[in-house]
Amino acid sequence: MTSVWELANRQLRGLAVYEPGKPIEETARELGVDPSTIVKLASNENPLGPSPKALEAMRAALEHAHLYPDGSGFYLRKAIAAKLTVAPENVILGNGSNEVIEFLGHAFLNPGDDVITCQYAFIVYKLLATAFGVRTIETPSPDYQQNLGATLRAIDSFMSRVPDRIIVVFDEAYFEFLNDPPDTLRFIRDRPNVVVFRTFSKIHGLAGLRIGYAIAPPDLTEVLHKTRQAFNVNSIAQVGAIAALDDEAHLRETKRVVAEGRAYLQEQFCTMQIPFVPAAANFVMVNVGDGCAVFLLQRKIIVRPLEGYGLPEWVRISVGTMEENKKLIAAMGEVIWGR
Questions:
Q1: Which residues make Cβ contacts (< 8 Å) with residue 210, sequence separation at least 6?
Q2: Distance (Å, whole) CA 255 – CA 183
Q3: Closest by alpha carbon to 142, among 134, 130, 133, 151?
């Protein structure tokens, strides 16, 4: 009998499946405990939850859930454009920014092409490149991070040397956490080949709605729209995102809580003499010796082992509420030092 794998595209045979942070419900089932007792610090979610304005808007929108959404996302694209001082034609929405990455693959990747990423970059780029049958080239990331100062100094010359036939992606999922972010949107106005990714999953606290977007020159977004499925972003997500975009107070409070928690965690790691990569967003990468062993599940805390990124000694820890952060530090002390 013919195996279905003989019929499937050859590149899928060795393709790894993306492994997200372990869900709270799954962990609770495995441990036989109440899900409310689990602390999840694995997926860089907002510790404060969604914007109150977004919750109110989404509850009201449920009354119209029997209707198909606006496939073009007109009002959300208009709101994003106004916020960023671009035109609505510069914006395309996705079912998470992951989907917009996939749009690029459908639109521009052909056999023999390459996808170039930094080492340890979001692994979805590599997975999608494999799915499209093209090669991924990873550039070294010394000390586990990009040299942001050198990048900012070199970015003009870098962009001036990249030919227009190469699509350049700036992935800015954590853009709002930065105190002095680079102005990558200026390239949208001057170049035909630049895409900037943003998301509502992180600082806006809407990860469960799966909504992200890209900003690009109108001709490029027009190409990407050709690859987009109709109604790819649901109506509840669109309404929630519009409200979240307008809730500056929630954004500021999230940024404050994350900055305070990040500083606390890094201070504790220093005290415990646990190596870590200094962070700028809402997570810290920590060297615990054996990332899979130090998973903290038995202590009802979920962190993210990084073996899939070629970093078996490391885990990624999201910044939680201060209560969650303190519980994490206590658990790490017990696991690593037995105290």
A1: 95, 96, 201, 237
A2: 19
A3: 151
Phi and psi angles of residue 250, each rounded to the nearest 5 degrees, phi first: -65, -40
Report CA 4 to chain centroid distance, whole Å: 33
Q: Can you give the pTM of this predicted structure?
A: 0.89
**Residues 6+ positions from 112 with CB-CB distance below 8 Å:** 134
By the 8 A CB rule, do 218 and 77 touch?
Answer: no
| Measured CA distances, 54 to 121, 192, 203, 285, 315 (Å) | 30, 34, 13, 30, 32
pLDDT digits (tens, 9 = 90+) for 85-127: 999 999 999 999 999 999 999 999 998 888 888 888 898 999 9
Q: Which two tokens stand for residue 267?
A: 């201070």
108 to 101, 167, 245, 293, 319: CA distances (angstroms): 11, 8, 30, 40, 36
